[in-house]
Each structure stands twice: as structure tokens, then as C-alpha cells.
Amino acid sequence: MVVSEDQTQREKEKQLAAATALRWIRDGMLLGLGSGSTAAYFINSLGEAVRNGQLQVQATATSHASDALARKAGIAMLEPRRGLRFDLTVDGADELDPQLRLIKGGGGALLREKIIATASDALLIIADSSKAVPQLGRFPLPLEIVPFALPWVLDAMEALGGAPVLRTDPNDAQTAVQSDQGNLLVDCHFNALPDPAQLAEHLQRIPGIVEHGLFLGLARAAVVAREEGVMLLRPGLEPVPAASVSELL
Ligand SMILES: O=C[C@H](O)[C@H](O)[C@H](O)COP(=O)(O)O
After folding, report:
1. Both 86 and 146 in a single domain?
2. What is the ipTM of this complex?
């Protein structure tokens, strides 16, 4: 596989954003752990700090893959239970706009990610520079669908102006990808989402859509690594160098 200079730069930025997020992790915190390649860098860095005795934390992961990675990294894992709330969730994103509205779910983990983000006092996004966009929608919107509902959900998405595509195995177009819950995933192409809140309302009314990948009003801050430095973005505030902010919460 040929890896372009751009891809190499993106990977470096993901690692840098993930490592920067560690500066806001405090001893004793209960953490939500995100999914995807950027979150994996964070889990590995966190695991290293735990194994070195620098940090003691407990966590719940947003996917089977992240759970396995975190256990392997030596992080103490918590099962879901009544009353459990997280101090902070650290997760990646497929797109984030200046108001820190997000598209998530490119890795299929959107449902557990939204559950854990909602059970957290704060959601911190870690991202490479390609994820920060002026307007959401170039990345197709992921949806988690109950299998029985698929045909009607596809019709409903077309009626909303989207072009829905069932997510299949990249090596076998006949095999649909299943989420950790055993549901189907649909990627809906819109090109641009001028009113994400209105779209989210429509999606919530379509039976069979278990969850959609619009995360609105959930992210407290985003660490975005760029060639010129690592910035902290917060809704309604000018971006500042991440190193200048000592307390996030
Ligand atoms: O379902 C996956 C998640 O929403 C990921 O956080 C998102 O797809 C970003 O993944 P990556 O860090 O690999 O770009």
C-alpha cells in the first residue's frame, strides 16, 4: 500500500492531538473512551501513563475494539451501571464545524459513542486538521438502522434529499457491515448540511433509525493538530494554542 505524504501528516496530527489530550486527564477520573484511529492513539498513550504509574483512571469504551485495546493497554474498565457518569470522554470525529457540531460514526460506533458522550460531564474531541470544516456534510452521515427497517429508511432518506448507501465489507460488497449491536449501517450523502439541527429532528422521527451521526451540542472542546501547532477549539471562542489551557473542565 502506498501511503501519501498527506496521510503520513494526518497520522502525525492524530497522534499529536491524542497525546495533547492527556494534559487534561487527572488522577481518579472516570473516562469514556472513543473509537476509531485517533481515539486508539489516545487509548495507547493513556495506557502508557497508567502502566508507568503516572495516572490512575477507570473507563468505559464506546466499541468492542476500543474496549479490547484499553484492556490490553492496562486500563481498568467499568461495565455500564445505573448512576455511572464520566468526568470526560475523549473521542475522534469525522467532521467538526466552528460551533463544534460533529459528524461521527465513520467507524460504525456512533450509538455507543453518543450514549457515553451523553453520560459524560464533557466531551473532548481529538482530530487531525482535515476534520475541521466550515460546514458539515461533505462526509456522508452515518446512520445505525434496525435491519427490518432498511428499505423504508432508504426511502425516507431519499425523500430528505440524501443518497443513502448501505455500508458493506470493503472486501465483499455482498456482506453488510454490522454494528456492535448487530444493526446495519447506512452512509447518507448530502454534500452539505446547512441546517444540521433540523435534519437531526427529521431523523429522530424515522422509525428504524436507532441513531444518527450528528452530535449537536455535545462537544465541550476539540484539540485539532495542524502543521502550525495544536489548537484548542471551543464553541463561540477563538481557537487558542492547546498548551495555553491548563484546566478544561
Ligand atoms: O465510529 C467511529 C467514530 O465516530 C470515530 O470517532 C470517527 O469515525 C473518527 O475516526 P478516525 O479517528 O479513525 O478518523
Report:
1. no
2. 0.98
